[in-house]
Write a structure and sequence with these properties.
Layout (H helix, E strand, L loop, with lengths): L19 H10 L8 H4 L5 H15 L8 H14 L3 H15 L2 H12 L9 H15 L6 H9 L4 H24 L25
Length: 207
């Protein structure tokens, strides 16, 4: 049974019971008010996996080495997570997308288009091609062919941008399965905050 004190199907170690390596990691990823998102708390029985997860998350979404804007990376995240029916990731990352866009009507239109699997309602060109790519990679990974990459280039995406989209999709397929597989909920989380875009994997000062 899940509740706010243990919002998952397995035990999550509370902050005040953490020590050593786990306490160090908790202190690194703490958000506003000292809150630790449940997606990170889910690793608490094996803290080394939290370190790997947090580094990957920061790299694919909040690193200055990426060239595409964070709001569009969040679009890829939300579309991948909707495709996987991962309520946790959709809630967190749609809130983050909405905060970045500062346009409630546009954010709402994007969500409705993604929920209907019709991104062409609100995107075209390179962005639409990248969204279709992450959808196919999520739902039909064995069906991927080299022509899928050629289509992205034809739409205007360079290989670095293709890699960024690939990594966002791959990361969210991992995290969606972590969350859905352990029954992790958003109970007690603060939605829509994120670490800053920097070149440091240890910089987690949420905003």
């Amino acid at each position: 049974m899940t509740d706010e004190t243990n919002p998952a199907w397995i035990r999550l170690v509370p902050y005040d019971e953490s020590e050593g390596y786990l306490r160090t990691l908790y202190d690194r990823v703490k958000g506003p008010g000292g809150k630790i998102d449940n997606v990170m708390r889910a690793h608490s029985l094996r803290p080394h996996t939290m370190e790997g997860h947090s580094a990957l998350y920061k790299s694919v979404l909040h690193h200055t080495g990426n060239s595409m804007p964070v709001w569009f990376l969040e679009c890829l995240a939300v579309y991948t997570s909707l495709s996987n029916r991962c309520d946790y990731s959709v809630a967190h990352h749609f809130a983050g997308l909405s905060r970045l866009l500062k346009d409630e009507a546009r954010a709402g239109a994007i969500y409705k288009a993604f929920a209907a699997a019709q991104p062409e309602r609100v995107f075209d060109g390179k962005e639409l091609a990248l969204l279709r790519y992450v959808r196919k990679l999520t739902l039909d990974p064995q069906g991927m062919v080299e022509a899928d990459i050629a289509a992205l280039r034809e739409a205007g995406a360079n290989d670095g941008e293709i890699l960024e989209a690939n990594q966002v999709c791959a990361y969210f397929n991992y995290s969606n399965r972590l969350l859905n597989g352990l029954g992790v909920t958003t109970a007690g989380d603060i939605l829509g905050t994120s670490p800053p875009n920097t070149d440091s994997l240890d910089d987690w000062e949420h905003h």
